[in-house]
Design a protein that fits this description.
CATH topology: Rossmann fold
Strand order of the largest sheet: 2-3-1-4-5
Number of helices: 7
Distance between the termini: 14 Å
Number of strands: 5
Length: 183
């Protein structure tokens, strides 16, 4: 099974791209961080990213989803972020990597969970804050750089998806996937 990661700065349009790819029949594994934030908000935590176990909660959910998706019959899956993104988030927030995070990073590397090619969705020139995404555009650009640096330092190849209309971005990924899967 081939597992591809889609990542990028918050507000880059990544989730919209994935929803369209899912509509076209691609197997998608949803992002964990937004769900962790939403669940914590429902529990009364206004700033869950300030909790010491925030990163570990994301890692646990990502691992759970990845393992569950391993039983899907699809030859190819697209992941809305990965533990590598969570590692970048930990860096962005200034947290030292937890034991849980480091163990998951070792597991995905040792088991070769994800393909080395990663779709990197470039920023759109703005970042619209949401209840789960409370980040300025300027901070999102810093986060984007941390993401790039983290992936490349770990030996991943970034497939840059430029800021274009949604249909063009989706087409770029679809064409790349078709060419790769046909080989």
């Amino acid at each position: 099974m081939k597992r591809y990661i889609l990542t990028g700065t918050p507000g880059s349009g990544k989730t919209s791209i994935l929803h369209e790819l899912k509509r076209q029949g691609y197997s998608i594994v949803e992002e964990a961080a937004t769900d962790v934030i939403t669940r914590e908000h429902l529990l009364g935590q206004s700033d869950p990213w300030m909790q010491s176990d925030f990163i570990d909660k994301i890692i646990h959910l990502q691992k759970q989803r990845q393992i569950a998706a391993s039983s899907y019959p699809d030859a190819c899956q697209l992941y809305d972020r990965s533990p590598i993104c969570t590692f970048a988030l930990s860096r962005h927030l200034g947290y030292p990597p937890s034991v849980c995070l480091l163990e998951e990073m070792q597991r995905i590397e040792h088991e070769r969970i994800y393909q080395r090619e990663v779709f990197f969705i470039e920023n759109l020139g703005f970042c619209q804050p949401t209840e789960a995404r409370k980040i300025t555009f300027e901070d999102s650009l810093l986060f984007e750089k941390i993401h790039r640096d983290t992936y490349t330092s770990l030996g991943y190849e970034l497939i840059e998806i430029a800021p274009k209309p949604l249909a063009e971005r989706v087409q770029c990924i679809s064409e790349w996937m078709r060419q790769t899967l046909d080989k």
